[in-house]
Specification:
- The complex is a heterodimer of chains A (about 80) and B (about 170).
- Chain A has about 80 residues and is mainly α.
- Chain A is built from six helices and two strands.
- The longest helix of chain A is centred in the middle third of the chain and has 11 residues.
- Chain A starts with a strand and ends with a helix.
- The chains are: A mainly alpha (about 80), B mainly alpha (about 170).
- At the A-B interface, helix 3 of A face loops of B.
Chain lengths: ~80, ~170
């Protein structure tokens, strides 16, 4: 998957832990962990909305597209 | 709507019983077929046929027995796959790829049984057998329903797999 989730960077910049975010967006820590580690296959708009509201950012700040990561994984 | 556990265990018990009965039926038909080869006159008399019946009657009877024998493995496939599906319901997760495959096997088995039913009709038409045969429209509708359900199940399982990775 060439889509990268930059949740870790966003949390680090805001000095926030994943557990705190989980509490504030009302999403389980397990699901956020899946998202953070790039194991999620899809993300709901409602999830994106909740995370962006709490982190005060845009969806584009959370996600990035890097085709080279896909090539690396395929190799 | 959830299936009550007692209903589930009753269904399992009934299916297990039917699997056993199917095997017994197969053994019975095989025995009759053997008798038709080694003691045809005795078998004709035992089944109430005239002793001077045309030889084609015995040929027809043998063909019906062979059709019945061919149906045994198909019924076995049908019943055992259904039993496995019921078991997966009991285990709490019936929406698995294996069940879509099982449903497809059941549909093919049902199609085979319907084909055998037609063959039996053909034998009844050609040979002087006094069997009460009529085409099974319900059975053919059942085959269609099973194939459609198998496909629906397959698509549903894929959609679920997609949802599993959704956050």
């Amino acid at each position: 998957m060439a889509v990268l989730v930059k949740l870790d960077d966003m949390l680090h910049a805001r000095r926030m832990t994943l557990s705190e975010l989980a509490e504030r967006v009302d999403i389980t820590l397990a699901n956020l962990s899946i998202l953070k580690t790039g194991k999620a296959r899809a993300i709901r708009f409602s999830t994106l909305d909740a995370i962006c509201t709490v982190l005060e950012c845009q969806p584009g700040d959370l996600l990035a597209h890097d085709p080279s990561t896909r090539q690396e994984k395929e190799e | 709507m959830s299936i009550r556990p007692d209903l589930l265990s009753t269904t399992r018990l009934a299916l297990r019983g039917l699997v056993g009965l199917n095997i017994l039926l197969g053994a019975g038909i095989a025995g009759l077929f053997a008798l038709s080869l080694y003691a045809p006159i005795w078998l004709q008399t035992a089944l109430g046929a005239r002793t001077q019946a045309a030889p084609s009657l015995m040929t027809g009877m043998r063909l019906v027995m062979l059709i019945g024998l061919a149906g045994i493995p198909l019924a076995y496939l049908f019943l055992t796959r259904l039993l496995a599906m019921v078991d997966s319901v009991r285990d709490g997760d019936p929406f698995i790829a294996e069940n879509a495959r099982r449903l497809q096997v059941i549909a093919w088995a049902m199609l085979g049984i319907q084909g055998l039913n037609l063959a039996e009709g053909l034998v009844c038409a050609v040979f002087p057998l006094e069997l009460d045969w009529s085409p099974s429209v319900d059975g053919w509708l059942g085959v269609l329903l099973l194939f459609v359900l198998a496909r629906v199940f397959d698509i549903g399982i894929r959609m679920r797999a997609d949802l599993d990775g959704t956050v």
